[in-house]
Every structure is written in structure tokens, then in C-alpha cells.
Design goal:
Length: 220
Amino acid sequence: MIRLEGVEKSYGQTRVLKGIDLEVGEGEFLSVTGSSGSGKSTLLNLIGAMDNADRGRIIIDGEEISSYSEEQLTLHRRKRIGFIFQSFNLLPNITVFENVELPLLLNGMRDEGRVIEMIRRVGLEEKQASYPYHISGGEQQRVAIARALVHDPDIILADEPTGSLDSHTGVMIMDLIKKLMEAAGKTIVMVTHEHHVARYADRIVTIRDGVIGTGERSRS
């Protein structure tokens, strides 16, 4: 589903990624670990077409997105990628329902039943008319998960999804992510600096000094 070949990325004089080679199979749950500043989030942004590589090839389901135009990259993000962020990234002035509905609207779709069903799957039926500032951090992340899945993307990208949560809530969110992803058969790439979170994945790889180290199978 995802293949990176010799991917490099620099910011100014800082070379962040130094020739990344990586493959992620369809339906696989991959965790990417590494210290702060190691390039984990940069890697995720490149896969999600939120940034461009300086060198190398990024191939998604047989298509080289590294050669896409800006318009093609925008469509790729909207249709094929679902994002889960550490800071939730919900719009504060619209309701839970409207936040979850947003990816559908961006794709020119309206499906109230689909939105309600995704809110139900994350256990927030009673909160769909609430605003993000009226619900807890764990509930906000549940909204973000529903929003990431509502348009049925091929790939889910999660950037430190438990980073803003306490440990108990983090476990609940990771249990939910794993359950929903397995049921939907999604490919997921998650970056985290917490090894106990990484172990929810099928496979773990580590970025050190801008390159991918030897992967390990998760035993979770």
C-alpha cells in the first residue's frame, strides 16, 4: 500500500530524513518510533502529502504521489487519507456532528446516516450536538477518530494520538483505534515516542539519525 524509496527531506541546513526506504502492506498497522526531532512527524507528513520530499519516491497503492501536482495532492489528502492528530484539530465553533461531517463535505458528499453511524461507533451518540470545548480530551480524540474514518479513506495517519491524554484515557483511545482499524481493514501508520503505545501495532520501526532502523514485530 505504501512504499518509500530513498526519501530525503531537509529544512534549511538541517537534513531530517537521509534516505528512507520503507514498505507498509495493505491492512497493516505500523508504528514509527524515535526520539524528539528524529523525523517521525516529517515522515508522516510526506506520506500524507502535507509536505514534499526533496529526493526519492513515495508510492501509494502503485501511484507515485511524489510526482503529483498540488491539485492532485489535495485530492489525494481529501479522498485517501484520514488524519488523527495529538492536538485533535477540531474546529471549536462547530458541533461534534459537524466536525465529523467535514471530510464528506470537502469531498462534495452529504451522508447524515454515515456521520451518525461513525459517532455511534466511537460512543458519542449523546454528544453529537455538543461543541468541542464542552467535552473531555478523550472525547475530543474520539471525535477526531470518527472524522478520520467517515469518508472511508485507504490510509489512516496518526501523529502521537495519545500525547495530550492521561495514561488511562490513552489506553482507552488505543484500544478503540485498534478495534476500529481492524474492523475496517485500514492501513495505519502511527508515530509515537511511547513504546507501550507503539506495541499496539503489528510492526514497529525506529528512526535514528534520519534513517529507518531494523523493524520488530509487536507482541501486543
